[in-house]
Amino acid sequence: MKHRIIAFAAAAVVALVPAAAGVAQTRTTEPGEIIKIRVTLTDTRMVAKDLTVERGQQVDFWVTNLGRRVHDLTFQGQGAVALSNLGISTGAIKPRKTVVLQLYMDYRGKFTLLSKRDANKPGLKKTFTVV
What we know:
Shape: globular
CATH architecture: Sandwich
Largest sheet: 4 strands, mixed
Number of helices: 1
Low-confidence stretches: 7-19
Structural class: alpha/beta
Number of strands: 8
CATH superfamily: Cupredoxins -  blue copper proteins
Oligomer: single chain
């Protein structure tokens, strides 16, 4: 009788191990930590670092306008992500103001960060990559 109880308990433990392993799997489309990217705009250039993130990340762009004129930050893509050209932007940012643009990175590829108000200034354009 005692051996039957031990055998039953051992079988129950073995049955639970695969179920626990299935719960612990990594899920690539769930956001992990929120990535904070600081972007500084002046009247002639854009300063930003660490412009590469992994797919599935939530990215908060903290955009500060240190220029004397109104600027914006627009997020553009090509190909399958061309929908980003439909207006993912901070809108107008007044001088000495900060705006947060929150985006979930669900497409891999290269994107352009630019100020559409200053499209003719190459210093106000950066490449952003999702791997």
